[in-house]
Design brief:
Blueprint: H1 3-9, H2 35-42, H3 57-70, E1 74-78, H4 81-90, E2 98-102, H5 107-119, E3 123-127, H6 133-136, E4 144-150, H7 162-171, E5 176-179, H8 184-187, E6 197-201, E7 215-219, H9 231-234, H10 245-249, H11 253-266, H12 272-283, H13 285-304, E8 309-313, H14 323-329, E9 337-342, H15 345-354, E10 360-361, E11 371-373, H16 385-390, E12 397-401, H17 407-419
Helix pairs in contact: 3-12, 15-17
Length: 421
């Protein structure tokens, strides 16, 4: 099926006489006919749901849909995108481990990797993703366990060279984890370019309506975990009676361990109602992304020609430094997010944003309604000046998430903001 059809038909497939809409299984627990069957569930030798901290039929259907959209073997939904990134890393990297990450990633993820994970004994080296491969090689250590980047960086709008980073990671025997939130599988499927694990903040475009917070981890099933670097997947897990994930679950070893070990212990699983709401967003994802991309392209061209704008970051512009990579990885469009810097710095940016009437000044992005944000004052507020520069953020930068309104109305509102400067 084409991805537009998958958005509607993957995941929940009703049988004869069953509801057409995905049912909400609002239950914490599940009944079985025998104690032996429940024992098999806990031995991981039988399929089924034990408890809704680990799995739930409604959430399971959405996980199957997301896995199908990305072309993976399995997915695990979480309570946020940050939870997804945390599980994606901790699943294969514990105390004494090290990861390599692009410096342009979302500020919250920089804090997660650079501050919080350090308290767990996991170190992170942030690199300039545009540096040549021979320079990036220097960031790797014997204890490196993963490489992380974003398909389209938030909010710098840098496009990751997925093939380059996949080759780099694989030379060192580690997986490439790609946060595909802004692109969504509609615009880019990182597994097709060599990535091994994909994460999402489903709060963004997958939901699209700003009504649920969630995340997802998707496993390609292609990485060779039995290379000596990942004993947690290839040696017996005593918390599950000595099961060895690669032996018992094969290509689903990574995603199975993430669920039955980390989700069991950390409890980041979303409720059924949240998954039901997310599924409604997923059903229209393909058509929404088409409109987001078309509106954003027009808005980016408008901003690039405006005298009050210093520069615009949007890979869909021919003058953008990531345009060539966008043509390669994002031929259907570059998503709906633009970042641009206004003349006059922070004060001018604030006046511009506070004068908008149609655009929502919110700490959110990837909504059906147009949104604006000042990253240096909000999402990236905790970063040092040096980190802001590394993340591609200037004092006058505004993140514009172009919605589904008529483009003429969006541009008229932006003009009101410029008039107030």
């Amino acid at each position: 099926m084409h991805i537009e059809t998958q958005c509607l038909h993957e995941g929940y497939k009703p049988k004869n006489g069953e509801p057409k809409a995905l049912p909400i299984y609002q239950s914490t627990t599940y009944t079985y006919d025998s104690t032996a069957h429940i024992g098999q569930l806990f031995d991981l030798t039988a399929d089924g749901h034990m408890y809704s901290r680990i799995s739930n039929p409604t959430v399971d259907a959405v996980e199957q849909k997301i896995a199908a959209l990305e072309g993976g073997v399995g997915a695990l939904c979480t309570t946020s995108g940050q939870a997804a990134n945390l599980i994606a890393v901790l699943n294969i990297c514990g105390a004494g481990g090290h990861i390599v990450a692009a410096s342009t990633i979302y500020g919250g993820t920089i804090n997660l990797f650079g501050v919080t994970l350090k308290k767990f004994g996991v170190d992170c080296t942030f690199v300039n993703a545009d540096a040549p491969a021979e320079e990036l090689e220097k960031a790797f250590r014997p204890n490196t366990r993963a490489v992380f980047g974003e398909t389209i960086a938030n909010p710098a709008l840098a496009v990751l060279d997925i093939e380059k980073f996949a080759a780099l990671a694989h030379r060192h025997g580690v997986p490439l984890i790609v946060d595909n939130t802004f692109a969504t599988p509609v615009l880019c499927r990182p597994f097709e370019w060599g990535a091994d694990i994909v994460t999402h903040s489903t709060t963004k475009y997958m939901d699209g309506h700003a009504v649920q917070v969630g995340g997802a981890v998707v496993d390609s099933g292609r990485f060779h975990w039995e290379n000596g670097k990942f004993p947690e997947l290839c040696t017996p897990d005593e918390s599950y009676h000595g099961v060895t994930y690669t032996e018992q679950f094969g290509e689903k070893a990574y995603i199975t361990k993430a669920r039955v070990q980390l989700m069991r212990d950390l409890g980041m699983y979303p409720p059924a109602l949240t998954a039901f709401i997310l599924n409604l967003g997923l059903e229209t994802l393909a058509v929404r992304m088409e409109r987001h991309c078309a509106n954003a392209q027009r808005a980016a061209e408008f901003l690039a020609a405006h005298s009050a704008v210093e520069h615009v970051n949007y890979p869909g512009l021919a003058c953008d430094p990531y345009h060539a990579l966008a043509q390669k990885y994002l031929p259907k469009g570059c998503s709906g997010v633009i970042s641009f810097s206004v003349r006059g710095g922070r004060d001018a940016a604030v006046r511009f944003m506070d004068s908008l009437q149609l655009c929502n000044n919110v700490v959110h992005v990837a909504d059906i309604c147009t949104c604006v944000l000042h990253p240096a004052s909000s999402t990236h507020r905790q970063l040092t000046d040096e980190q802001l520069v590394a993340a591609g953020i200037t004092p006058g930068m505004i993140r514009l998430s172009v919605g589904l309104e008529h483009i003429d109305d969006i541009l008229a509102d932006l003009e009101k903001g410029f008039a107030a400067m």
